[in-house]
């Protein structure tokens, strides 16, 4: 009985200590006079039972804003998190006071998963060095070099699509568009003709999908590694990508580089530029410097990042654009009319110059990215104590900042009738009248999306090629609402996107 009593008292003492720890921890924002969302032991403001996409987790916090403070306090487990709700404060975090928030705090494990240490996840001097090395690969001049390659893939995509149609047919566009962007990125990043339209189960398509939609860890474990990276690395050896996914891309990069160097192959693509940097050369660009060689692992990591970011985001953007255009036939016809008028001035050819003239198509893409931002949440890490402007509040070094681009894009105080699809929101007049960080589809500031030029170019070419040749309408299978893949930080829907497609 004495032994049982001792154990019972130890358990009670242990549970009391845990309860006391969380109560004290959850007073963090209250003690600082910051408005916060009430947490629940032990998950904080994270959901306990149901699987939820990260956009919904942060969005639910953002929706509780009162306008009194520039941000709301929240908790991931026992860790304080800042959720900004004021655009001026967001501008401070992303641009004005970037030196205090230059980290992303994204989990990576260079020891067990070398490819996870890429430009997206690295912080500090390593990120700075990689960004300086790779930024020149995405200049407008280099986009011009890659433009014919993307058009060639688009032409092949259209030819394959024509084979599927006899006048009209219901097609699942999510998979078809992912095959198109897989072929584009496979060609530009690796110099490999994937031809996913003919071979939908190609290795690139399969491993690319698995990397994002089938990670090695659950959403909860991902958030755990995000909050406690040292524990995740040291004790659990948590990976970002499954081993077979990393091995496939590592081997592909090794083989591609070995073949090109042995046969002196030059293609003016992304891999060419990475090989130059691997061999210690600098890219001949006005902003370029010689900053040391890239290792083979760094080359593979950046190639994988480019592949994943490029094929998923652009295919999703085009898919949502076609969905909205099918629901808004007047906007679709206006876009098609612009395409016809511009191409008639350029001998019917899609060229770098003709695409730049299609301003309404660009508005359609921007409005699509507003309603469906591919990266709905932007994370930053406070790298030094920061005094919030016009207050006594200090955001301590190491605090996470979670900016909900999705919530900002759907905030009726920022965009009137946000659920209405209206490309004219991106007319020069309306853009000028909005806050400079009201549109965050590519982030902003020094850590914005380095590949935004390529992403826009790829989406423009794909959309122009499709609207030039086909008309899109909703059908019985067209979804009216969406469920998102919880484990994927990008905005990836679970169901297919069926549309009725007719030849123009």
UniProtKB/TrEMBL annotation:
Keywords: Endoplasmic reticulum, Heme, Iron, Membrane, Metal-binding, Microsome, Monooxygenase, Oxidoreductase, Transmembrane, Transmembrane helix. It comes from the Eukaryota. PROSITE patterns: CYTOCHROME_P450 (PS00086). Heme binds at residue 449. CDD domains: CYP6-like. It is a peripheral membrane protein. It is found in: Endoplasmic reticulum membrane; Microsome membrane. Belongs to the cytochrome P450 family. This is Cytochrome P450. It comes from Hermetia illucens (Black soldier fly). The lineage of its organism: Eukaryota, Metazoa, Ecdysozoa, Arthropoda, Hexapoda.
């Amino acid at each position: 009985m004495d032994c049982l009593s001792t154990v019972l008292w130890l358990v009670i003492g242990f549970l009391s200590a845990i309860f006391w720890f969380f109560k004290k921890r959850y007073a963090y924002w209250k003690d600082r006079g910051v408005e916060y969302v009430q947490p629940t032991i032990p998950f904080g403001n994270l959901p306990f039972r149901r699987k939820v996409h990260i956009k919904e987790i942060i969005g639910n916090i953002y929706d509780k804003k009162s306008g009194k403070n520039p941000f709301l306090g929240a908790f991931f487990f026992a860790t304080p998190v800042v959720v900004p709700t004021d655009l001026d404060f967001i501008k401070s975090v992303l641009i004005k006071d970037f030196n205090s928030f230059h980290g992303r705090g994204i989990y990576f494990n260079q020891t067990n998963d070398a490819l996870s240490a890429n430009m997206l996840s690295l912080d500090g001097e390593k990120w700075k060095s990689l960004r300086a090395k790779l930024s020149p690969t995405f200049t407008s001049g280099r986009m011009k070099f890659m433009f014919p390659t993307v058009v060639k893939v688009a032409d092949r995509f259209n030819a394959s699509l024509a084979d599927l149609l006899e006048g009209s047919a219901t097609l699942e566009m999510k998979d078809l568009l992912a095959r198109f962007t897989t072929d584009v990125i496979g060609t530009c990043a690796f110099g490999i003709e994937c031809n996913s339209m003919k071979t939908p189960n190609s290795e690139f398509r399969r491993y690319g999908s698995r990397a994002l939609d089938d990670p090695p860890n659950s959403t909860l474990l991902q958030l755990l590694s995000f909050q406690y990276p040292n524990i995740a690395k040291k004790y659990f050896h948590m990976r970002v990508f499954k081993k077979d996914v990393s091995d496939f891309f590592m081997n592909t990069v090794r083989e591609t580089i070995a073949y090109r160097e042995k046969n002196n192959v030059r293609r003016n693509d992304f891999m060419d530029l990475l090989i130059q940097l691997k061999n210690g050369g600098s890219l001949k660009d006005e902003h370029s410097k010689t900053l040391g060689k890239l290792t083979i692992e760094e080359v593979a990591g950046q190639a994988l990042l480019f592949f994943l970011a490029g094929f998923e985001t652009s295919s999703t953007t085009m898919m949502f654009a076609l969905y909205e255009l099918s629901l808004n036939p007047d906007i679709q016809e206006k876009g098609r009319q612009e395409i016809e008028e511009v191409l008639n001035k350029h001998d019917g050819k899609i060229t770098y110059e003709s695409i730049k003239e299609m301003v309404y198509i660009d508005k359609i893409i921007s409005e699509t990215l507003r309603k469906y931002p591919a990266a709905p949440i932007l994370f930053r890490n406070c790298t030094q104590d920061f005094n919030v402007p016009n207050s006594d509040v200090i955001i301590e070094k190491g605090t996470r900042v979670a900016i909900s681009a999705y919530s900002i894009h759907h905030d009726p105080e920022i965009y009137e009738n946000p659920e209405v699809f209206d490309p004219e929101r991106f007319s020069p007049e309306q853009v000028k009248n909005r806050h400079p960080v009201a549109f965050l589809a590519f982030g902003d500031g020094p850590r914005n999306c380095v590949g935004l030029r390529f992403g826009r170019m790829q989406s423009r070419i794909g959309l122009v090629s499709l609207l030039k040749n086909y008309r899109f309408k909703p059908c019985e299978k067209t979804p009216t609402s969406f469920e998102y893949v919880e484990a994927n930080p990008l905005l990836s829907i679970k169901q297919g996107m069926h549309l009725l497609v007719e030849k123009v």
